[in-house]
Amino acid sequence: MTGDSQPLAAGVNSQSTRLLLRVVILSLIAAAAVASRLFSVIRFESIIHEFDPWFNFRATKYLVANGFYKFWDWFDDRTWHPLGRVTGGTLYPGLMVTSGVIYHALRALTIPVDIRNICVLLAPAFSGLTAYASYLLTNEMTTSPSAGLLAAAFMGIAPGYISRSVAGSYDNEAIAIFLLVFTFYLWIKALKLGSMLWGALCALFYGYMVASWGGYAFITCLLPLHAFVLICMGRYSTRLYVSYTTWYALGTLASMQIPFVGFLPVKTSEHMPALGIFGFLQLIGFIQYVRSAISGRQFQTFLATVLIGTFGIGLLGLVALTSLGYIAPWSGRFYSLWDTGYAKIHIPIIASVSEHQPPAWPAFFFDLNMLIWLFPAGIYLCYQDLRDEHVFVIVYGLFGSYFAGVMVRLMLTLTPIVCVAGAIAVSHLLDTYLSTKKPTNPEGAPAASEATSKKAAKSTGLRGSEKPKVGIFSLVPKTGVVASLTIYLLMFVTHCTWVTSNAYSSPSVVLASRMPDGSQHIIDDYREAYQWLRQNTKEDAKIMSWWDYGYQIGGMADRPTLVDNNTWNNTHIATVGKAMSSREEVSYPIMRQHEVDYVLVVFGGLLGYSGDDINKFLWMVRIAEGIWPDEVKERDFFTARGEYRVDSEATDTMKNSLMYKMSYYNYASMFPPGQAADRVRGVRLPDQGPVLNTLEEAFTSENWIIRIYKVKDLDNVGRDHAAAAAFERGQKKKKAAKKRGARVLRVD
Amino acid sequence: AANWDEVLQNICQYYMKETPQRTKLVDVFLVFLAAVGALQFVYCILAGNYPFNAFLSGFCATVGQFVLTVSLRIQTSEANKSDFPAVSPERAFADFIVCSLILHFFCINFIN
């Protein structure tokens, strides 16, 4: 670890060796950061993981193929089928543009690399930069020579960050965390120097961050908060004024250049703290100026009048504008961070995402290992010499931990500050216990270890007159502490490697399992099915599936979808949910209206793959119920005793729902009679499977994970599908019914 | 109320006496910027904000230029020298120019 190389540097101890060591250590850290993210590429192959990255990948391919201007106003008619998506105005273009630039730069250097490989390896490459940025940030916090290197090492391999940045995870966070840390570094630098240039750089990187990730709101709230805390502590300085106002004026304009953000910085409540502090700083700057101009007595009158007047007017104005609707209140996603029960009740689509749940305690230890208990120690050390930048660490630490406690996903924004604080704590310990300096007494006589101090005591005669040296000068406790720290650091590395290798390096597209002899068995049903769709259906066949798979279908199968992971239209998703959870007779008209050609469901019953659509089914019901409470009722899907069952005890609504029928269609024929079992729900299924009238099975993948159904055309002779299918099965009545049915008048 | 007059008078006197010529020049520019900003704002209230981006970029240009100029004024005035050991007046002016260029680039881009 880096901590161990420090005494070596002290031993050689020249400026250039130290610099050389620093460069070598940082390159090694960057190499470790990149290497530890490559597990999935080496084990499986170089593909894009998860769901969201598939859209980013598709957008990047579009950018590379069509150029920047076409990408900027790209109307995508292959998603959200009847509606389409104005992609240029509804995405954060930073990620795609970054990889596009890298692609063209590499081509210009005559290294033509496939755009897919650039996308796959972008996150590891940027993680090296993140390690460097946290090195810079930590160096601003402390004078210790090792803290920055330690922070870089922590940041490079901490699983909390690796989880979102393994190779193949081509998501916005891949570059956003680097930008987050670097923006904070520039902010601290600007604040320390009071320089406009650093403030402008901070604003530019803030603009880049806004272009990359929706989490930029974190910066817009944290910087004003830091400034506000500084003001409240009586630490207003002209440096604060210069750096903050430069950042705000340029950064706000920079953020408004992104079409997706547009006027939000002046219209929504998330951005109001920044504006408020901006105004407040003007006021304080003015007051400070006046204070130097007039005497104390007069100043008090002035202060009272101006401060109360302006503050009151400002606050009233903000409240009035918000309540009159000129300033939008908090968006649901942001609001649910404060009122943690809000999403569950009002917006099921936010609550249905698993990463929006609060984490349990083990998650913190799992993702941050020993850093999580060094984190409070680091914060405490920041309190000890409380400079402006330490206030930042404290504020960031508090807010970061609150947000990470509310939402699993925000562990990502907590990780940088935990690494910084942990590095401060560790380096403080190492600096204390690794120093080989002996204390010198006031006369300058060497009195270091017990032996020499005894001699010194003898020479001066009076033992009591000597001041006792406070500190640990014996070698034994020093080596003890350093050795245990080294062991912890080594264990940290082992833990990080283990977690990365076992928990965070699986591409969800490919499912891996082990054979009894230890060899790997790959279950590749997703790509099998998507490839089937790509090769065996019309170019513009519309696929209906639950929104989770929208991006993957668009990316791998290249077919238009009805809904996808960008959940911008809740009603449209509810329409799909209604089609999935209703009877066939209800669903069929919906599917006809939306020109659906194929329906795709994910079914894990055969393999025990628990993330399938039956387990997600209740969310479909809930989201549909939010729009059509009369037609879809969640209660109907539970048995009288309130159980959610799929076997023979299932309710009629459940058995007749399209999702149930599609999942279990023909499933019983896989097993000998009476043995049909669902391995996810762990239940035995009835021998008589459901009957499908309006759909026909088009494709079922090898392990039955993906099932694709074709929507039948209207019946040629105008019967409804149930009647036609019954006729086909030969279920017509043997004796023609003599009785006349109730007829209705034919209206021409 | 009498107290108030006194306060204002004192401030005026202090300003006239203590401010160097160059800083006064900067202050004239600040007054001009404030006037332009206020004018734009009044026009926006009277005539509506239909091309909102145009209003915003114009208004942000004045506000941004105002705070940048105030920053320049702070960094170049003698009283604050101890606050900015790293920033010489020339450096402050260079920073000011760079920041203003960035600001104007963004404003022109945003006004369409």
TrEMBL record, chain A:
Annotated GO CC locations: oligosaccharyltransferase complex
Gene Ontology MF term list: dolichyl-diphosphooligosaccharide-protein glycotransferase activity; metal ion binding
Name of the top EC class for this enzyme: transferase
Catalytic reaction annotation: a di-trans,poly-cis-dolichyl diphosphooligosaccharide + L-asparaginyl-[protein] = N(4)-(oligosaccharide-(1->4)-N-acetyl-beta-D-glucosaminyl-(1->4)-N-acetyl-beta-D-glucosaminyl)-L-asparaginyl-[protein] + a di-trans,poly-cis-dolichyl diphosphate + H(+)
Residues making up the signal peptide according to the UniProt record: none
Cofactor: Mg(2+); Mn(2+)
Listed EC numbers: 2.4.99.18
Keyword Flavoprotein: no
InterPro entries: Oligo_trans_STT3, STT3-PglB_core, STT3_N
Gene3D superfamilies: 3.40.50.12610
Subcellular location as annotated: Endoplasmic reticulum membrane
Broad class of where this protein is predominantly found: endoplasmic reticulum
Domain STT3/PglB/AglB core: 542-592
Membrane-spanning segments: 20-39, 89-106, 118-137, 143-162, 174-207, 213-233, 245-266, 272-290, 302-328, 363-383, 390-408
Keywords: Endoplasmic reticulum, Glycoprotein, Glycosyltransferase, Magnesium, Manganese, Membrane, Metal-binding, Transferase, Transmembrane, Transmembrane helix
GO BP annotations listed: post-translational protein modification; protein N-linked glycosylation via asparagine
Described purpose of this protein according to its UniProt entry: Catalytic subunit of the oligosaccharyl transferase (OST) complex that catalyzes the initial transfer of a defined glycan (Glc(3)Man(9)GlcNAc(2) in eukaryotes) from the lipid carrier dolichol-pyrophosphate to an asparagine residue within an Asn-X-Ser/Thr consensus motif in nascent polypeptide chains, the first step in protein N-glycosylation. N-glycosylation occurs cotranslationally and the complex associates with the Sec61 complex at the channel-forming translocon complex that mediates protein translocation across the endoplasmic reticulum (ER).
Name of the protein this chain belongs to: Dolichyl-diphosphooligosaccharide--protein glycosyltransferase subunit STT3
